[in-house]
Amino acid sequence: MSSKTPVRVDGRDLVLTNLGKVLYPEAGFTKAEVIDYYSRIAAVLLPHLAGRPLTAKRYPNGVDGAFFFEKNAPSHVPGWLRRATLPVPGSTMDRDTIDFAIVDDLPSLVYYANLAALELHVPQWRVAPDGTAQPPDTLVFDLDPGAPATIVECCRVALALREVLAADGLTARPKTSGSKGMQLYAPWDGRQEPSVYAKELAQRLEKADPALVVSVMAKKARPGKVFIDWSQNNPAKTTIAPYSLRARPYPTVSTPLTWEEVEECGHPGDLVFTAADVLARMQEHGDLFARA
Prior knowledge:
Distance between the termini: 49 Å
Helix content: 25-40%
Strand order of the largest sheet: 11-12-10-14-13
Radius of gyration: 19 Å
Structural class: alpha+beta
Largest sheet: 5 strands, mixed
Protein name: Non-homologous end-joining DNA ligase
GO molecular function: DNA ligase (ATP) activity
CATH architecture of the largest domain: 2-Layer Sandwich
Organism: Nonomuraea typhae
EC number: 6.5.1.1
Domain DNA ligase D polymerase: 30-289
Shape: globular
């Protein structure tokens, strides 16, 4: 039997359910704690979700249970939660459009946390107030280590990427994926098609250090190397949002980093941060991704 808890969040009425359900069994981390984390991190998280169509990865029975990606806003979504109907050419569901949710405010974020949307994924572009898709405003490189490579090797690649981006006048910002790799973001000025630019840089780094870097997706090419996934810049793709939880055994978070942390990383455990760690980091640093 589900338990229901009515709450009022910034003037919006919500009903939270099953707050005692454990969503991260190894950590004993409950749905109430998931909602609490998202509520407390909202000040730095929401700017990275605002205006971006949400793809939620939901785990109704916790990280050990079945999950599903949800792009279409649920039929029971409150009328006040912002939505945008956007074309999705080539949809695997044979849909011409999807009614996306846009999580712009705290009530919307709490609503999705209550749905056990542990992971929040967004594209590199935003939706204008009139509901139309805008050009990409962010460039992203997803650095994926092939075992036995780890995030330590990703940091070496991130430092090399930072240099080539800086030479092109772009300021890179690093974050962990919250899983085994990391991502680099840079504000994008539309100088060319972002996937083309990102692929060129990935290939350039692969040529400079083929023992460490690979730019092709083939799994057989990746053991011991770091795959620079430039294809994340395709407008149809999404990347885990800064400050989103991940569905790992423990409630790890995709965590913005300082470049000093990247430079000093010597062990994979150096860059693993849980929800509690990230809340403490927010108190110390604010939003590292808000800095130029």
